[in-house]
Write a structure and sequence with these properties.
alpha+beta; six-stranded antiparallel beta sheet
């Protein structure tokens, strides 16, 4: 993880079935979050989920960067007990939940939440102590 350390505020936990990072609200956070997610999923031998999870995390971190000013948290939880799901959470200090909208063909953005909704088993939002968390679940193989 040393090559990511300069862009990551802190790696909170990467042992066992949970990995969690906090990134600064800067443009490089998207790339760094994507790399962290891919690296952790490869470490868990879940390469088959790495590209999709990294893409969806990119969308949510980008949303956080557009609307929030504080640090962005990313958390992965491998949930073997609940029908084998990978829980992915992206948190930021803005309390307002994201709004899914219908993007027009000529729009250059606005499809992130549609992509999350269409690619995951379930997704949602929940308020936090100082902001919100947007989460989604992906089916584990096997």
């Amino acid at each position: 993880m040393g090559w990511l350390a300069w862009e990551v505020i802190g790696v909170i936990d990467t042992e066992g079935d949970c990995a969690e990072w906090t990134f600064p609200a800067e443009p490089g956070a998207v790339r760094t979050a994507r790399a962290a997610v891919r690296g952790q999923l490869r470490g868990w031998h879940l390469d088959c989920l790495a590209d999709l999870a990294a893409l969806l995390v990119s969308e949510l971190v980008t949303n956080s960067l557009r609307h929030a000013t504080g640090p962005i948290g990313v958390r992965l939880v491998r949930e073997a007990g609940r029908e084998g799901a990978l829980l992915v959470e992206v948190s930021d200090p803005l309390p307002d939940p994201p709004r899914e909208r219908v993007a027009q063909a000529e729009d250059e953005n606005g499809r992130g939440l549609q992509l999350v909704a269409g690619s995951s088993l379930r997704w949602g939002t929940r308020p936090g102590g100082t902001g919100k968390t947007v989460w989604f679940e992906l089916a584990l193989p096997g």
